[in-house]
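Justification of resources, computational component.

The compute hours requested in this renewal are based largely on the per-chain cost of generating structure records like the one below. Each record pairs the submitted sequence with a full C-alpha cell output. That output is archived, and it is also reused by downstream analysis tasks.
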Amino acid sequence: MTLKIHIDDSAAPYEQVRAQISEQARTGVLPVGYRLPTVRGLAESLGLAANTVAKAYRALESDGVIETRGRNGTFVAAAGSAAERELASAAQAYVQRARRLGLAEADALAAVRDALRAGYGED
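The structure output for this chain reads:
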C-alpha cells in the first residue's frame, strides 16, 4: 500500500488518506481481505498524528470500504454491493428531496454534476 500526503493540498490529511485507500480498494490495488497497517503504524510511516489516521479509518469503515475485526486488525471489506446499495439509497433520497423542492430534472442533475466536480476536484 502506497499513500502520499501533500501538505500543500487543500484537502485535509485525513481526507487524503481516506480518498487514497478508498480508491486503491475500489480499483483492486488493495484486494478484498488485505490487512491494513495499524493506525499507529500508518500514522508513523506517513508522519501524521494517530488521530488523523483513526479519523480516516472511521470514515472508511462508515463507508463500508474497510472493516475492523477487533484485535485481528483492519481489512479491506468486500465492497461493491454494500457501497452500491448505500449510494443508490442516497440517490433516491436526493431525487425525492429535489421533487419536493419543485426542481426540474435538469436542475437537479446540474446540481449533482456541480457537486461531483467539486468533490472529485475536476474543473
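The mean pLDDT is 89. Residues 91 and 108 are 11 Å apart (CA to CA).
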